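ok so dumb question maybe but i'm new to this and my supervisor (M.) told me to 'just get the structure for Pre-C2HC domain-containing protein' and walked off. so i did the thing. is this what she meant?? sequence i used:
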Amino acid sequence: MIRNKNNYKEMLKNPNNKFGKANAVLVNEYIKVYSKTAEDHRDMQKFCREEKIEFYVIRLLSERPFKIVMKGLHRDTDIEEMKSELAIALPEIEILKVGQLKNVRTKSPMDIFIIELKKNGHENKIFELTHSMFLKIKIQNYRKPPGATQCWNCNMFNHSSANCGFQTRCLKCGEDHRTNQCPITTPQENPKCINCGATAILPHGEAAHCFQKSNQRKAKV
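this is what came out, is it supposed to look like this??
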């Protein structure tokens, strides 16, 4: 998905010259470009980064990780130790990432872990696991929370930071650094949304208009 700008014809000219006639479709404020092969899909991402063309990626289904939720381990479990135990118990699976959920209010770790596995034909074996680290565990399919995804890199919607090719923007000040690196550490009065300029949190607790609009679009899909 390439950001639609006034010079879109010139912007699409170079990818067409390099990859052949592009199958491009206008989708709201973006241009959706379809690649012919998985290799073209990866090469086009590299090309856009080199040419500083802002974009985000809709990952191929085959390249998306297989996500599960594990419950039952102690909240103080060491992530690396957990990975080692899983690798010993199920050597067929390939672990890409393990994350731990935190309580929204207290920021304290919870006994809920999100595990990403590579799709290699053996990923479903994870459901055969009933115990780990001497504790009984429960494994469930990951269910994505409702609402629009907001990127941690550019803070726009409908994609994640792992698939982002946009300029980094801070949610607090709009400068080119990650929000967790911002020098502003105190709550701001009437903060403004960096996407639409409106008050970020409205009086009744609703999010800014652009976030509500993104949620409405997602609900229609």
